[in-house]
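Entry: Oxidoreductase
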Amino acid sequence: MSKLVGKVALVTGGSRGIGAAIAGRLALEGADVAFTYARSGDRAEAMVRAVEERGRRALAIHADSADPGAVETAVSLTVERLGRLDVLVNNAGVYEVGAIDRLTREDFEKTVAINLRAPFLASSAAARHMGDGARIISIGSTFATRAPEEGLSLYSLSKAALIGMTKGMARDLGARGITVNVVHPGPTDTDMNPASGPGAAAQLRSIPLRRFSDPDDVAGLVAWLAGPEGRNVTGAEFTIDGGANV
């Protein structure tokens, strides 16, 4: 796998779960990879080793996506340390759920700051450094277009907004050859939502394929969008959920 040799990628929230799978896959495809993490320094160190074992350069950046300055600095550090930026994956996010009459202003501000403002700022900063053929990919959610249970109003709001932002940026950056897309994972087997967890059985009943996605499934789709086959795909949404949203 060498479709991304010579490229540099930045993955926000790349030390665990879907983000770690994406960072690892992009490295496997030949990219040097920077990634941000907010906690779990041991996982960040493990991710650095995993990228370097694939023969690629790695850069772990401690950055809280709730801090706008940290988001922009992560982009600058990537360019400074790794020399360029070709692929941005906006993956970092929070999952705040609750009925609308119980959610607080603080819940709203935290969710919007991490799930929406951070991708906007990272994309804006990245676009200033990117050249022709660059990629911006945001990780959304199937809850952006469908709320199958209670308590999703705030989370769905933040992920639905990514769709509009993606389409707008695709128009803004298309003339420069930069593609912008959003990937919507459904139930995915991570430490936050394990396929063997207490709520897994109920989720499986809603999935036609009767299986959770693996983080590597999502990473494979992201790698395709980041690679040469994705060069003419922009402003698009991709759902990877085993059919849960049909």
